[in-house]
Design goal:
The complex is a heterodimer of chains A (about 240) and B (about 375).
Chain A: H1 8-17, H2 28-54, E1 57-69, H3 77-85, E2 97-108, E3 111-127, E4 133-149, E5 154-171, E6 176-179, E7 185-193, E8 198-208, E9 210-212, E10 221-223, E11 226-236
Antiparallel strand pairs in A: 1-2, 1-11, 2-3, 3-4, 4-5, 5-6, 5-7, 7-8, 8-11, 9-10
Chain B: H1 10-31, E1 74-88, H2 102-107, E2 122-142, E3 145-157, H3 162-171, E4 188-193, E5 196-201, E6 205-209, E7 213-221, E8 229-237, E9 257-268, E10 271-281, E11 292-303, E12 308-317, E13 338-349, E14 352-363, E15 371-380
Antiparallel strand pairs in B: 1-2, 1-15, 2-3, 2-4, 3-6, 3-7, 4-5, 7-8, 8-9, 9-10, 10-11, 11-12, 12-13, 13-14, 14-15
Classes of the chains: A alpha+beta (about 240), B mainly beta (about 375).
Amino acid sequence: MVNQTMPKQAMVNLKTKRGGRMGFPAHRPTMILLAFVIVAFGFGPFLQETARAQSSTLYYFTVKKGQLDPSNSGDTYLKELETTHGDPNDDRVVQPLSFELDIYGITSGSFGLGVGLEALGYTKTYFFPDGEVVHMGVKGMHFTLKTFLRYGAFLPFLGLGIGNYYVNLSQSSGLSIRESPEEVYNARVGFRYQPNRWGILLEYGVTHAELEVPGQQNKSTLELGGQYTNLGISWIF
Amino acid sequence: MENRSNAPRLPVRLALVGGWMLALTLVGGWSSSSWGQPDNGGLGPMSIRNQFPVALAHLNYTPDSAVTLPENTFRFRYQYALTNTFINTQSPKANTTPVIDNSVIRNAGGVLDASHFPATGYALYIDMEARNHLLRFEYGVFDTLELGLELAWVSFGGGTLDNKIENVERFFGGLNEDRLSSERDRYDFYVIRDGTFLRKSTDAFSNEPLDPVINLKWMLSEGGNVLPAMSVKLSYKAPLDSHPKGNRVHISSGESDYGYYFLFSKAIGDVVAHMQLGTTRLKVADNTLADRLKHKMYGLEFRVDGDNSLIIESVTQSSIFEKVDDPNSIDFPISRQTDSGIMGYKHKSDGFLFELGIIEDYNQQRNEADITVYFELGWEW
């Protein structure tokens, strides 16, 4: 059984290194990403009257919580750590929290198109038997084009998009980086049930956001995405 | 930890799901007989190239409308962009050696030399404001083919905005503290790699011409109620001089570059979604800068009415600095990609065009401009 208490020195190392050695304010991307969503969110009410007058445009704001599993992505970073430090205390599953602004345009009949702007984040810490600690704090953004069908309050959808991911990754033995994968793709399927202003959302998807971890001899990779399932509460405005 | 490395990799599954979605989109489109002609291009994304001073010497991607001009239509645009940049890879806060701050510059008589920078790898000391005057001429050869020419004149100097930018950054809690160790409104432009300067300038200059850029945009489809507007854009930068002299050595590579970009946009109700991907190939000498830039843009255009739009977009670009195989390179992560947010307003009525925007980097590793404000005026006839 692995001791899950983080060694004191390791905690100190992580605390000092998480912000990065370059003095870059680590919270800045978070603020900007949030601002991005908030501003986009704020445009909605401003345009609402215009939208009603011109066509059927629906704005949804959804808070989602789910499970993300990158374990079968084929990445190598944690596997290589296993060979050196032993089995970590936990599996790869994380529970991201995400906020999404969806804009749906009702085009004709029951078929429509939408676009979603989503900000998400999660953290994960692995403890290895020899005292090594790996911490990752991940933030991401998805821009997803969606097709949907409308059967009354029931709206199944498919989505495909791109995005950006950021990770603060630190090892107690020395590594401390802030990185972004070059390519981020995202596909999802799910449905909304929206009987009134409030509704629920259930979706399954796959995100590809593979990072080549710098400073590693074997060009290790770390998947920040993976297969995910989300349950959300949405509000239409 | 469970090892399931034989499972299909994510891109394969992505392709499967993406194919499914595309099929549904096509089937949905035909079955609903909804091949109408909504304005999928909108007024277009905020249209300004990357203003990082190091990158100005090379071709770069400019977000552009996925819809071409109608046949036999002209468009002329003038754009003025003001960019403030402060980067010091050798700042006291960066915990690197040697350190560069105001006292070091003063002791060096105002001009740094190679001994003030590390002997290996990249190092930057950039403290400047750049003013960029851009003229764009565009012509619709056919409804689906557009030709364009870009001519620009650039000024580099100390500027006047350092104090204001520090106040704004402080207000948002994102102050670049490296700025505090430098004299305000000073002009310094140093980029060095392995002891050799790629840029070295301390004398401000005005209105030097950038290399001209020729664009060709081919609209594959203007889309419909279901499909997005889709275009391919090719850009080519031709050097004015193969051996730039004087101040132009800082703003011209003396080489030709080219780029190809895929532009998509889709009107969804009163919002237009813009998504663009592309690559720029740079002709550069070995061991200087990256020879390939990858670009990604996505954004939302909120149509206030037919003439006015509010736009917010994110532009991601791979670094112009090469990845260096150096164990210490982790301390100089300037080879990592950058992300910038662009927000602004666009207007078009009776052939008159107006655009006002601001660019703020939100993810950079000392390899991107800090802030750009710009406006554009244009006429279409």
